[in-house]
Amino acid sequence: MNNWLNVADDHDFSEHNLPFGVFRSGGESHIGVAIGDHIIDLNIYASDGNLSETSFDASTLGEGTLNAFMDCGRPAHKELRIKLQSDLGNENSSLASGRDKYLVDRIGAEMVMPIEIGDYTDFYSSIEHATNVGKMFRPDNPLLPNWKHIPVGYHGRASSIVMSGTPIRRPKGQLMPPDADAPVFGPSKRMDFELEMAFVTCKGNALGDTISTADAEDHIFGMMVFNDWSARDIQKWEYVPLGPFLGKNFGSTISPWIVTMDALDPFRVTGPKQDPKPLEYLHCEKDHSFDIKLQVSLQPKDSESTIICRSNYKYMYWNLAQQLAHHTVNGCNVRTGDVMASGTISGPQKGSFGSMLEISWSGKEPITLKDGSTRTFIEDNDTIHMNAWCQKDGKRVGFGTCSGEILPSN
Ligand code: CA
């Protein structure tokens, strides 16, 4: 540890992390960086001239979202990171001497949407998840023939992505009961979560241009935890022929802090072997997988939480560089502030499945919670908590929690 706040190396928000978020301060939205139980208020820190020597435009830190700062590019993000680490290691720095002014309490802070999200894309990149879901519908042929050649995805809806802590109302829609002749209208009876990670883009490409796997990480600001809430019964009736729609677009939840690619770099690992070898534009020269431990718990109202899934981002078959290269290979332009979610991250064994659909095997195998109640899908007033963290050689980088409660349908 090398900081005068004495934040331990194994704290979620250690000096090795320094994730970005936006919090409410006196009626305004301020950009901040988390360190231990504090937030460095970058709005005030920058406006006092502490970043006047930097090569990027520090006035971007006075905005109410991260978009303008993200648009400065990866070298700017790294430069600020190095400056803050240096200030945190120096008891005579302006950050240390102005700590009463620059540091705010993280625990009591109200976090708000850190970015203005332009477009949102959801991939389907876990082979375990795709195989599990496929098995329920096509036992003999679970993985479709294109799956190992294409990072499959769809365009989702950005307007309904919300900050952790925002309740989600159980959606109503068309449902086709088993053995019925016609659909009925009503609240979803098969409410589900999907455990995902999402990345945020920080530099776009012009329409008609592409982003290679080698350049992909220059276009990625960082990552957060992502819950892609799903109404399985609405989804099942609507998804043929054009894919996910109202079973998905009523809400998705993000964790408040965006962990930068520089903070994730030490946790890089080799991803699963890809066989058959993907087409040339999907080849990677280096590793783009990360060892991010994931955990989901379900908490009934006024009761304790039960852990229902332990998974890891490293299980993903397609990595984020391949996802971004594939997304743009046809000339599609991405912009700063686009969000791309990984798809449900399931591991190989039971216990590592990232949705209730898989955990209860389509409702056939209920699970028992600590309070003795059972679940096949999410019930009203259940809260889903998702956590993610990296840890290696005693150094920890945490994402914080992505939580949301399901409210009864109105
Ligand atoms: Ca999904």
Strand content: 25-35%
Q: In this structure, how is the largest beta sheet organized?
A: 8 strands, mixed
Which fold does the CATH topology of the largest domain refer to? Fumarylacetoacetate hydrolase, domain 2
What is the CATH superfamily classification of the largest domain? Answer: Fumarylacetoacetase-like, C-terminal domain
Topology:
Layout (H helix, E strand, L loop, with lengths): L19 E6 L2 E8 L2 E4 H6 L19 H4 L3 H15 L5 H4 L1 H4 E3 L5 E2 L7 E4 L3 H11 L15 E3 L5 E3 L4 E2 L2 E4 L8 E4 L3 E2 L2 E7 L18 E8 L2 E2 H7 L13 E3 L4 E2 H4 L3 E2 L19 E2 L2 E7 L6 E7 L7 H9 L10 E3 L14 H4 L7 E2 L5 E2 L7 E10 L2 E13 L3
Parallel strand pairs: 6-22, 8-16, 9-26
Antiparallel strand pairs: 1-2, 1-5, 2-3, 3-4, 6-7, 10-11, 12-15, 13-14, 13-22, 14-16, 14-17, 18-19, 20-21, 20-25, 23-24, 25-26
The site of calcium ion (CA) has 6 residues, from loops.
How would you summarize this macromolecular structure in one to three sentences?
With 410 residues, the chain is an alpha+beta fold.
Overview of this protein structure:
The chain is α+β, with helices and mostly antiparallel strands and 410 residues long. The protein has two domains: 93 residues, Fumarylacetoacetase, N-terminal domain (SH3 type barrels), CATH 2.30.30.230; 288 residues, Fumarylacetoacetate hydrolase, domain 2 (Alpha-Beta Complex), CATH 3.90.850.10. The protein is 17% helix and 28% strand. The longest helix has 15 residues. The model has no long low-confidence stretch (mean pLDDT 97).
